[in-house]
Every structure is written in structure tokens, then in C-alpha cells.
Amino acid sequence: MNRSANPGGDSDIAKIAAVRAAWIRAVEASDVGGLIALATDDIVVVHGEVVSGVKGGSGVQTHSRIVAVFSRQPDASWKVARVIALPG
What we know:
By secondary structure, the chain is of the alpha+beta class. Helices cover 31% and strands 34% of the residues. It has a single domain (3-86), classed as Roll (Nuclear Transport Factor 2, Chain: A), CATH 3.10.450. The chain has helices at residues 9-28, 32-38; strands at residues 39-47, 50-53, 65-72, 78-86. The protein has a 4-stranded mixed β-sheet with strand order 2-1-4-3. A hairpin with a 5-residue loop joins strand 3 and strand 4.
């Protein structure tokens, strides 16, 4: 990674790590409101062959490994924008 191209990189990495940790805590606590607060308004969740949005507060219960894509917000915070569930 070329850190000179992103002078705030360490700060961004710490912010993303904090969002990731909060996401895991919210999942473990089944805190849907907490998950929604950590997600972008246009979050997309891909689970198997199903693609769904979570806008409006509806959720899906699942147990799996995921890949999360984080999006930098205009206020320099980070939120989860995409979630891709991995098989197995």
C-alpha cells in the first residue's frame, strides 16, 4: 500500500476497524438498529443467490462468513455499503 497517496490512511484504517468491531458487536447482540446505524442508506446484501436491501429496517437473520465493503461518508466517517455472504 502506498501510504503517501493517502496521508490520512492510518486514521481511516482505525475508523474502519472501529466500524467493523461495532458491526460484529451488533450482530452478536442481534441489534438490528445498531446494524442499520452502521450501514449506508443504500446498503446491498448478497446472500447466496439472493440480493436484498435493508432500507426501511427489515432484516435477514443468517450465520455465515462475509465480505464487507466500507464507504467513506461526506463527514469522513465510514459505513458498511455492501455485504457479501461467503458459502460455508
